[in-house]
Design a protein that fits this description.
The chain is mostly helical and 235 residues long. The protein has a single domain, classed as Rhomboid-like (Rhomboid-like fold, Up-down Bundle), CATH 1.20.1540.10. 60% of the residues lie in helices and 9% in strands. The chain has ten helices and three strands; from the N terminus they run βαααααααββααα. The protein has a three-stranded antiparallel β-sheet. A hairpin with a 2-residue loop joins strand 2 and strand 3. The longest helix is centred in the middle third of the chain and has 22 residues. The protein is globular.
């Protein structure tokens, strides 16, 4: 199922931060493409690799570099499909979360969701040598927050079953939990994996951690309260 847009939701502000995040991810991807044969060495040195921080035991001295590499990893992608899929989800679901939190708190929310996803990936595979790249961990936080805010919203979805292709409308309370269950079962199957082949190239627990962290961070940042509308003028 490929989401195309959400309906039944309204925004009062322009999704400035969501757009800027998409632009930043696209620009970083073009930078990756410009590296050519140097791309692999760049990713291995700049991205978050769990084994790099656990081989000698976790220490406070590694915290700074670890946070830095986790931040870089949030803006790296492994291919066009990886990038476009993530940006599609961010565009569809990010604007409403940004509208609820406001621009500044949304930036904080997005980055903290990404860090929560990274640490979930670290917990699930501390010895993994696979770089954890992609915005999907942070975007998973967006999905979790969106589900909390708009469970009854409908998601226009492209359903593809072999030669059967149809547009359907799926409630968010169905679409997003189904997406989460796929991550959960895939993550359970990947426990103990250390290579890209074993994980299918996906940091499943980053998705799981981000999704769970999303509603919690939303509440922590005050997004659980509806933004007050200005009173109607009296004539």
């Amino acid at each position: 199922m490929i989401p195309l847009r959400d309906v039944d939701t309204q925004r009062t502000t322009a999704p400035v931060v969501t757009i800027l995040l998409i632009v930043a991810n696209v620009l970083m991807f073009f930078f990756e493409l410009s590296l050519g044969s140097r791309l692999e060495s760049f990713v291995m040195s700049a991205a978050f690799v769990p084994a790099r921080y656990t081989s000698g035991g976790l220490s406070l001295g590694e915290l700074g570099p670890g946070l830095g590499s986790a931040l870089v990893s949030m803006f790296l992608h492994g291919g066009w499909g990886h990038l476009l899929g993530n940006m599609l989800f961010l565009w569809i679901f990010g604007d409403n979360v940004e509208d609820r939190l406001g621009h500044v708190r949304y930036v904080i929310f997005y980055l903290l969701s990404g860090y929560a996803a990274t640490f979930a990936h670290l917990w699930a595979g501390p010895g993994s040598t696979v770089p954890a790249i992609g915005a999907s961990g942070a975007i998973s936080g967006v999905l979790g927050a969106y589900l909390f805010l708009h469970p009854k919203a409908r998601v226009q979805t492209l359903l593809i079953l072999g030669f059967f292709i149809r547009l359907i409308y799926v409630p968010a309370w169905v679409f997003l939990p189904l997406w989460f269950l796929i991550q959960l079962f895939s993550g359970a199957a990947s426990l103990g994996a250390h290579t890209t082949a074993e994980t299918g190239g996906v940091a499943w627990f980053a998705h799981i951690g981000g999704f769970i962290a999303g509603p919690l961070l939303l509440l922590l940042l005050g997004g659980g309260r509806r933004r007050l509308q200005p009173p109607e003028p009296l004539y």
